Amino acid sequence: MSKTRHQEEIEEEENLFYEVHEVVVRKLGHVPIAKGDFHYLPKKVQRYVAKWVQICKPRAIYICDGSQDEATEVIHKLEERGMLHKLKKYQDNYIVRTDPADVARVESKTWMCTEQKYDTVPHVQPGVVGILGKWISPDEAAEHLENYDGCMAGRMLYVIPFSMGPIGSPLSKIGVELTDSNYVLLCMRVMARVSNDVWHFLREGDGEFVRCLHSMGCPRPVQRKTINHWPCNPEKVFIGHFPDKREICSFGSGYGGNSILGKKCFALRIAGCIARDEGWLAEHMLIMGLTNEKTGKETFLAAAFPSACGKTNMAMLTPSIPDYTVRCVGDDIAWMRFDKDGVLHGINPEAGFFGVCPGTNMKTNPNAMLTCMKNSIFTNVAETADGGFFWEGLEDETDPHVTITDWLGNNWRRGQPGKAAHPNSRFTCPAGQCPIIHPKWEDKKGVPISAFIFGGRRPTGVPLVYEAFSWRHGVMIGATVKSEATAAAEFAGKSIMHDPMAMRPFLGYNFGKYLDHWLSLEKPPHKLPKIFHVNWFRVDEEGQFMWPGFGDNVRVLDWIIRRCEGDDSIAIKSPIGYLPKKGSINMDGLGKINWEELFSLPKHYWTSDIEENIRFLDLQVGEDLPQAIRDELAVQKKRIEEELFADDGK
Ligand code: GTP
Ligand code: SPV
Ligand code: MN
């Protein structure tokens, strides 16, 4: 990893701690080492740990090695404490209930800290509240960092060495997470590659790692009543990123993206900055391979949908037509780099799935269900009296007479108001257990990507699929991605929100510069993926989904693959991009599908949509918006005005 000036500064600062406290460091200020050998750690890691031990004041240090014994020990401890218990219907599956105040990412408390504000956020127009990234000044961040003083008193500090991506791949990066939560340790063990080998690799390589600090913010004796044995500190939540120092400091929450720091904090926000500096892409995308059964040819697709909009489902879909075999490489994040021949190769930096439970069942996503039958953690789901999990969508797969306890621990009867499982309840399971995991999912070179697909929940106006005219047009389409709000963050209601590139909550730097970065990839010898937009969520006048979705989405992917192969006979030009020619998507056996409605482009909708997009990007990105995107928007507006007819749709 290339080293920034600020990384040198942070090393100097850590050195200072190390030197001043050299004697202390040797014994870590009387903080005993519960497990592991501190002196075995690379020196830079020793210094990083020493610094935070002195600030956070844990009762002991536990250096993780990623072994099975370690998991057994930690699970046992958590079971004893009552924070976790076994779901006895399965093999080594566990259920956890959080404090109901800690159930999703907290976007309002998630910041990027840079000296220059506009490195992080675009120049919004005067009076506009920016929604593309949140900046915090180093001084303000320093105030939040004061909360770490003594924050681990009476608690264990876990030192977690991990690799995002296969250890040793040129596309992978190393991190070290310090946390006082053993639940987070268990999740990190599934979601990242936690191993002693990371220390060897650091010693042999450039020694650079992303510094990831996490605390639940509940020192002992606790100040706040602990609910469900889940200590947290909702009032003081701080998810701070310091991209120049390649450092993350997370405080107060134990949930998902707030605490499993390898995931969104590192693999998207910090990695986004590294990718900008090093010329690659870190995106909120699934990667899947589809093999044509007749020709044997495999095509890899990467798709970016906002949170809770269908990535996990698509990544491991069960095709409803026999033409393809689908295999999953990743379900949430893609790291991609052009090789020397200009072919874009992608890896899944994660090692597990942190998937949305509600809606997942043997019909919609059997592969996800089969992946989480063992060695998995279920957070905020409901439980059946016979030791099974339950959530909305499992009604037909659950004994109708079994007693159910909801995610809050109360008795729950079918049909009663309110949900059994929290809408953002999640399974955490090892990707390697997925029945259709791709044999190359850990390939150090990654897999070649032929297309990017954007999408979101768009109840009206937006057709099932369309294709960008060009790379630039595709980047514009990505920049105007919108979706209904979901439960993955703290938003309420069903409003349509902008979520450019499905990255709004995960941007690591100025979105205008991010678009520049994408546009800059159009150069020799780069072979650019084709860009598409899909919408599985269009509804009819009765509010019913017009498209069956899930396994039937393969029919749309088939069209996309044929377009990637250069079939010109199946597309027609429309003002918004290429649409499938009527009949060019295989609808065999689907029953009644209203093609006209599914692909209609209502003029009033697209007219106001393009105006709204232009306004949005102008207000939110201002002078940072690349001219090429302004031009694409203007041309698209003109096409809509001139080429769409009022009777093209309702
Ligand atoms: P994150 O993990 O938050 O990034 O979410 P995700 O993008 O992986 O979404 P996921 O696949 O978990 O799906 C979220 C919800 O959308 C689930 O309740 C799914 O059942 C539902 N869903 C997924 N695909 C489809 C589809 O094709 N049609 C319909 N109607 N619903 C879908
Ligand atoms: C998302 O919200 O996009 C997720 C879940 O994948 S979390 O890890 O909490 O970000
Ligand atoms: Mn996600």
UniProtKB/TrEMBL annotation:
It holds the Pfam family PEPCK_N. Its EC number is 4.1.1.32. GO terms for biological process: cellular response to glucose stimulus; gluconeogenesis; glycerol biosynthetic process from pyruvate; oxaloacetate metabolic process; propionate catabolic process; response to lipid; response to starvation. Residues 280-639 form the Phosphoenolpyruvate carboxykinase C-terminal P-loop domain. One of its GO terms (cellular component) is cytosol. It is an enzyme of class 4 (lyase). GO terms for molecular function: GTP binding; manganese ion binding; phosphoenolpyruvate carboxykinase (GTP) activity. Its cofactor is Mn(2+). Keywords: Decarboxylase, GTP-binding, Lyase, Manganese, Metal-binding, Nucleotide-binding. Residues 48-276 form the Phosphoenolpyruvate carboxykinase GTP-utilising N-terminal domain. Belongs to the phosphoenolpyruvate carboxykinase [GTP] family. Monomer. PANTHER family: PHOSPHOENOLPYRUVATE CARBOXYKINASE, PHOSPHOENOLPYRUVATE CARBOXYKINASE [GTP]-RELATED. This is phosphoenolpyruvate carboxykinase (GTP).
